[in-house]
Amino acid sequence: MLLLARASVRVDDECAPGTVEPVSLVVLDQRVRGDAGPTLDYFADQGVDVKVVSGDHAASVGAVGRELGLSGADRPVDARDLPRGPEELAREVERHSAFGRVTPERKRDMVRGLRDRGHTVAMTGDGVNDVLALKEADIGVAMGSGSPASRSVAQLVLLDNRFAVLPRVVAEGRRVIGNIERVASLFLTKTVYTMTLAIIVGLLAVAYPFFPRHATLINAVTFGIPSFFLALAPNTDIARPGFVLRTLRLAIPSGVVAGLAAVTTYLLVLGGRTVPDPADRTAVVITLCATTLWVLLLVAKPYVWWKVALVGSMVGLLTLAMVTPWGRWFFDLDVSDPTKVLTGLAVAGVAIVAITVIRFVDDRMTARADARRVPADDQRARADV
Description:
Elements: E1 2-7, E2 20-26, H1 36-45, E3 48-49, E4 52-53, H2 58-68, E5 77-78, H3 86-95, E6 98-100, H4 104-116, E7 120-125, H5 131-136, E8 139-143, H6 148-153, E9 156-158, H7 166-204, H8 212-232, H9 243-270, H10 278-299, H11 305-323, H12 325-331, H13 338-373, E10 383-384
Parallel strand pairs: 3-10, 4-6, 5-6, 7-8, 7-10, 8-9
Antiparallel strand pairs: 1-2
């Protein structure tokens, strides 16, 4: 806020300013974009701590933060009053959300302190004074109209200079990471049950239960076609560390159970023979398809209408291949023996129960481990921008 006034003498006079007559007040206000507030609300809903760090006066920074509804902006901090020690500085940065009079070196120290305390930090900036912090952050986000130095060190450049595009960026990253995990779980399950089946069949010295056309049918309806749609589907799950471990915890038990179920059905329908007939092979196909379709249902959570329709259509395609003359001829299937068909379904039912129990126990154990590792009053997995 500026006061414009008229003096009774010239400004270069020895007696200046003399009598001063106020004329007007000029208020200089920050122009806040209309989409800034909803963007901050989105990150707050996602458990992200947003901090405004600026070289401007702390009161100005706090005023902008209050206009946006930023939590803690009513208590802005002058960075010159912050402690010099890295540990003390990091604690103060965690406690507050609006900082003014921050030098480039202090911005870097603030980002480094948050990272040292276990936070994942994204830094946005457009000037040369932001370069050090952009380099130090886990993700540096520069504006397209910013300085060349800030754009060169950032991992992400917003060409339209709109901070509001970041929610879409986050959503796209979550979609890619989450869907890769789903698809990887499916294909690793396939790899595990294939290895299990091949090893046991080799040790028993019996013929392999599938022709290539059988494998084509199984892979298409259980993993191939569903994976195409799951890889492109929206996914809002928050990205978490431990991708490999989570994938293996689902794929290995499910694959082993599916492989053992297929071998069990195979041995039951063979009845001591070493070479199967088409009815024997069909029974194994039924067991493996039913079991792996259940794994697909586990991977597809949370359920929405199109996922249910996807799994239902895969069941329909499998049924169509088994009941139509052309499908039975093309895939060499034989469902004329109801005993063998029921055997395949019964073994698949036992396998489905086993997989469900294993997943339930694993989820309970994982939840308890997470509860012990992360206290309720110290959610260290949150991110700061």
